[in-house]
Amino acid sequence: MTTLEAIKNRTSYRGIFEDTAVPREDLRKIMEAGLAAPSGCNTQTTSLIAVDEPQLLRRLNEVTELETPATATAMICVLAQKLIAYRDRSFYVQDYSAAIQNMLLAIVELGYQSCWYEGQITDEDKIGRKMADILGVPEEYELVCFLPVGIAAESLNYAVKMPFEQRAWFNGFGAKS
Amino acid sequence: MTTLEAIKNRTSYRGIFEDTAVPREDLRKIMEAGLAAPSGCNTQTTSLIAVDEPQLLRRLNEVTELETPATATAMICVLAQKLIAYRDRSFYVQDYSAAIQNMLLAIVELGYQSCWYEGQITDEDKIGRKMADILGVPEEYELVCFLPVGIAAESLNYAVKMPFEQRAWFNGFGAKS
């Protein structure tokens, strides 16, 4: 699969997963893809924890209370540190977002599906912190997102997007190409 | 090139570019890759402008005052709208970061190089707004980043990153795999 194909094929999969283990080797490749993303001033603010132990997955899924991602046999948790890149500026949100996007593409390339779960665990109920506590994550890291990883058992749906011409132009805003 | 190869090969290229035009077709493919990125609640907060007119490029590069990206024959400007995904939450930074990462990978796949220029144009001097004015971008859009696009004329350098074991683990923070 070329990069452009993986980019086109990727979608937010919210269905049920097959009960098939994801090999450690693949989880490592996915995490390596995440860590290969750029970070502002190379501060490398993103860290990752892959979870494939069934009991640990069960505890995390009890906390998230989300049904379909709980059927995945693996999960990658994304940790962020709000480190300063220069002066008072941190690019940690950009950093972890680029890392997540790399991982989503690697997941597709390796034959799996996933979805970016962030808002669900970073609202006032602080589910991300509960997950972090289960995983022994220190307070200076924020658990900002998790990605279920597994083989899709249901069909894929693609988000309907605005036409290219409404979001992209050449040589000027709203210009005709 | 597979996705994993593109992810590994991508680097922040800050050298001089060859004086070779980037075909419109390639710029369109790169922008399509950007727009294919996910966005929080599918709000599609990211828009793009590709610039390849030499005079327009010159005006933009006068504003950025950056030497090496100014040698690129094309540039993609990233526009962000801080739209609400749900309640009071906007994921626009995540949205444009995922779009940028997709574009950086597409750029590598198509044989070009680039670099994520964000802090340079979003500091107090508001260079991004000056660029936006040149491109006729309405006030409700923020020009948050630009990506030069071109063929590298110099060798690539790769950022030195922390070892995998210091940033990624299985089944617990800092755990040995």
Attribute tags:
homodimer, 177 residues, alpha+beta, NADH Oxidase, 6 helices, 4 strands, globular
CATH homology superfamily name of chain A: NADH Oxidase
Give the overall average pLDDT of chain A.
97
The CATH architecture assignment of chain A turns out to be 3-Layer(aba) Sandwich
Structural class of chain A: alpha+beta
CATH class of chain A: Alpha Beta
Please describe the biggest sheet of chain A, giving its number of strands, its sense, and whether it closes into a barrel: 3 strands, antiparallel
Summed up, the domain count of chain A is: 1
Protein chains sharing the most extensive interface: A-B, 76 and 75 residues
Which regions of chain A are unreliable across 5 or more consecutive residues at pLDDT < 50? none
> Termini of chain A, distance in Å?
30 Å
Please report which band the strand proportion of chain A falls in: under 5%, 5-15%, 15-25%, 25-35%, 35-45% or over 45%.
5-15%
**Quaternary status:** homodimer
Radius of gyration of chain A: 17 Å
- Enumerate how many helices of chain A there are, as a single number: 6
Give the number of DSSP strands of chain A. Answer: 4
Predict the CATH topology of chain A.
Answer: NADH Oxidase
Helix-residue proportion of chain A: 25-40%
Give the SSE order of chain A as H and E letters.
HHEHEHHHEE
Task: List the strand order in the largest sheet of chain A.
Answer: 1-2-3
